[in-house]
């Protein structure tokens, strides 16, 4: 089983999951990516047996990956009942968004001070990739890239604790959106992201923070209690891995 998971040839973006190439890194990164793309529904049971079969690894490897996800608040480990994808309550969702606003404000202020020309170029490329994904109808990739944008922005802020905190908040936000987003599926985050980059490049901290808060307001305004859009079928979520004759590979986003 030790050579079941092979890395993709596609370039990666932000984050460190999967960078070392260990099996639990790769399993972790695939599940994290599925959460960011809203392909895993809140409350989904994460069967160690099913995941072991999908990824071709031992339950020990699966447990390590699930433990990391639990540490980030996107998986619940239930004694004697197994793991499930977290299903935030309304109160928990509000707490996450409150924390997210505080962190985004701090990250934006620091990015105005510290973002390099290379950081800004990378951010613009991510926004273009996000736009292209939505244009071709790949909503999952577009949502993931939108989340990656905020992780990359945290890196541009040059503050390691904020990067770690943001990683957890972005993944929890994706679960909240999957659970509570309204029927309006329109997305204009790439336009808001590009405006934010322009303000950061101009070193206009007041404008950049205002644009970020408006962006968060836009996300918040689309939430309700009615709709779930992801799947709780593990084999369906990871079907792109099972359909290929090759072995599961590292996901394109090492988040």
Automatic annotation (TrEMBL):
GO terms for molecular function: DNA binding; DNA-binding transcription factor activity. Residues 1-21 are annotated as: Disordered. Residues 21-88 form the HTH gntR-type domain. Keywords: DNA-binding, Transcription, Transcription regulation. CDD domains: WHTH_GntR (cd07377). Gene3D superfamilies: GntR ligand-binding domain-like, Winged helix-like DNA-binding domain superfamily/Winged helix DNA-binding domain. This is GntR family transcriptional regulator. Pfam families: FCD (PF07729), GntR (PF00392). It comes from Pseudomonas lundensis. Transmembrane segments: none annotated. PANTHER family: HTH-TYPE TRANSCRIPTIONAL REPRESSOR NANR, TRANSCRIPTIONAL REGULATOR, GNTR FAMILY.
């Amino acid at each position: 089983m030790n050579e079941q998971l092979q890395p993709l040839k596609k370039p990666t973006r932000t984050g460190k999951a999967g960078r070392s190439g260990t099996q639990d890194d790769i399993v972790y990164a695939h599940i994290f990516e599925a959460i960011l793309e809203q392909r895993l529904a809140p409350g989904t049971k994460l069967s160690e047996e099913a995941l072991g079969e999908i990824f071709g690894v031992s339950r020990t490897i699966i447990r390590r990956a699930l433990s990391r996800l639990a540490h980030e608040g996107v998986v619940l480990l239930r004694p004697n009942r197994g793991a499930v994808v977290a299903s935030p309550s309304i109160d928990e969702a509000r707490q996450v968004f409150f924390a997210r606003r505080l962190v985004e404000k701090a990250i934006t202020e620091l990015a105005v001070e510290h973002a390099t020309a290379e950081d800004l170029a990378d951010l613009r490329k991510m926004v273009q990739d996000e736009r292209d994904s939505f244009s071709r109808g790949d909503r999952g990739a577009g949502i993931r890239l939108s989340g990656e944008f905020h992780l990359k922005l945290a890196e541009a802020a040059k503050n390691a604790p904020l990067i770690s905190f943001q990683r957890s908040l972005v993944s929890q936000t994706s679960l909240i959106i999957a659970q509570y987003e309204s029927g309006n599926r329109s997305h204009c985050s790439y336009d808001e992201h590009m405006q934010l980059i322009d303000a950061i490049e101009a070193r206009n901290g007041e404008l950049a923070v205002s644009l970020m808060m408006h962006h968060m307001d836009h996300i918040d305004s689309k939430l309700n209690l009615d709709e779930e859009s992801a799947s709780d079928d593990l084999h369906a979520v990871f079907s792109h891995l099972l359909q290929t004759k090759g072995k599961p590979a590292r996901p394109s986003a090492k988040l």
